[in-house]
Every structure is written in C-alpha cells, then in structure tokens.
Amino acid sequence: xxxxxxxxxxxxxxxxxxxxxxxxxxxxxxxxxxxxxxxxxxxxxxxxxxxxxxxxxxxxxxxxxxxxxxxxxxxxxxxxxxxxxxxxxxxxxxxxxxxxxxxxxxxxxxxxxxxxxxxxxxxxxxxxxxxxxxxxxxxxxxxxxxxxxxxxxxxxxxxxxxxxxxxxxxxxxxxxxxxxxxxxxxxxxxxxxxxxxxxxxxxxxxxxxxxxxxxxxxxxxxxxxxxxxxxxxxxxxxxxxxxxxxxxxxxxxxxxxxxxxxxxxxxxxxxxxxxxxxxxxxxxxxxxxxxxxxxxxxxxxxxxx
Length: 305
Fold this sequence. Notes:
Blueprint lengths: L3 H5 L7 H11 L7 H22 L3 H4 L10 E4 L3 H7 L4 E4 L7 H19 L5 E4 L6 H10 L5 E5 L7 H10 L3 E4 L6 H9 L5 E2 L8 H14 L3 E2 L6 H10 L7 E3 L51
Parallel strand pairs: 1-2, 1-8, 2-3, 3-4, 4-5, 5-6, 6-7
C-alpha cells in the first residue's frame, strides 16, 4: 500500500516487463526476494490474468500457445486413495529423517521409499522431497543405500545458498538433483543451474516473480539444458508449464490442497487431474474468479503452503 500502489494505479496492465523491473528495483533496499518478491509475484499473476480476460484468451495463448495438449502430473502424496482418484502412478514423497537420526533414520527412510516403490510398481516414478534437511555426506550415503528403488530425483537436499553442496551432490549421486523452491531472483537460479549443476530447476510461480519472473528463469534453463518443473500447483503454474512444452517441462506437480478439509475453494475453478492427465480449459485469463462463498461468515478453506 505504501510503495507499490503508487507505482501501479493508472499504469498499463500490458506493461508487465517494465512493471516487474520497476517493482523489483524499488524494493531492492528491503529485500531481493522473500515477502517483496512474493507480493510482486501476486501482482504479476493478477496482471497476466487481466490481460487474458481483456483479450478473451487463456494466458497460455499469450505465452505462445500450448506446447502439449495436457500435462503429466505427479502426485505430492502417496495416498492410495488419491492415486486411484486421479489415475496417477508417479509420486513425490517427503523423507522424514535426516543426519541427526543416524543409521536408524537412514533405515527408516529406506523403508518409506521401499513402501512407495511397492505401491506405484515398477513403472511409476518416485521423487524424494528432502526440504533442505540433509547435508552432502548424508545425501550421498542415503542415495547409495536406496539406489535399487530407482529414485527419479532428490529435491532440495541442502539449503538453497549451499551452491557447493549442490555441486558435490550432483557430481556424486546417480539420480537427478533439483532445487529452486526457495530461490527468488534470477542470479540465484543461474548459480544453482550453472555452479550447482542441478539438472532440474523448480521455481515457485508465487515466489519467484509470477509469469514474468519464471519466463526469465526458463531462458536460463533452456540455455543449460535443465528441465523446469514448477514447485506448486494452481492455474498460473499450469498455464506457464503447458506453454513451455514437454521438452523443457515434462511434468507438473499436483497436490490436493483441499484433501480432508472444506469443500469450499477460494477460486471458482482449479484444474484437477483425470485419468492421469491434467487438462486446461480455453477460458480467458487463468480461467478462474474469486469464489465469494469462500469468504462467507463461517466458511473454512484449506490454505496452500
């Protein structure tokens, strides 16, 4: 309200590139990333939605059109019910233990991965979300122990600024290493890809600059032959990914954020997988509006992370 409002009111909503640059430069003195970039991301997403609605075209058309008819989701969960409901056989699971738990924790992690492999069968893929909780020796030893389960990638094994740690892990393990969920700026992503040698980058559209920010990140990924699969869910994420095509973005993440909570959604429409695929409509913008029922007295909704 104090700073960004004056930079936006009365401006051309189609000027997303210059507005992005102005907002990021104006907020540099109190944060290259974090809350300022999350706010800028929300603004940018709203502007792209507005552009689509004014032009009566889906946002993916404004980004060059669909690169694939629909998306291939993996499920961040290994709920048998969810796998069956959505027809998905590929999962990303959280590994519950880290270096502080020693060998017992490693054995417990292996048991979790073994159970997931049994659930999805030989043809399903398994990715592991480490959530920045491992270190270099632990990651290397853990992956040596579970190599037989054919893990597709390990996600965020170390803190995002530990570029040397990413490089050492990437050089040592026999699966892909991903990162980027907790990165915000273009130089941070470039360092992860070039110096950290990750081969899968996972920016969050709600944290790393919206459509405009992620388009810039995608240019670096293309230049270095790094796959880009966004962290997170929702129409903005899916419109961006489907415009990239399957060579750059072969999959998308799906997490049912309303599972076990209220049936009231904040948005009037939110794409959900069917028969193992996730399709987008041709509705203008991102295809959603605010659902007023979600803000009625007594309504409860499940928040996204």
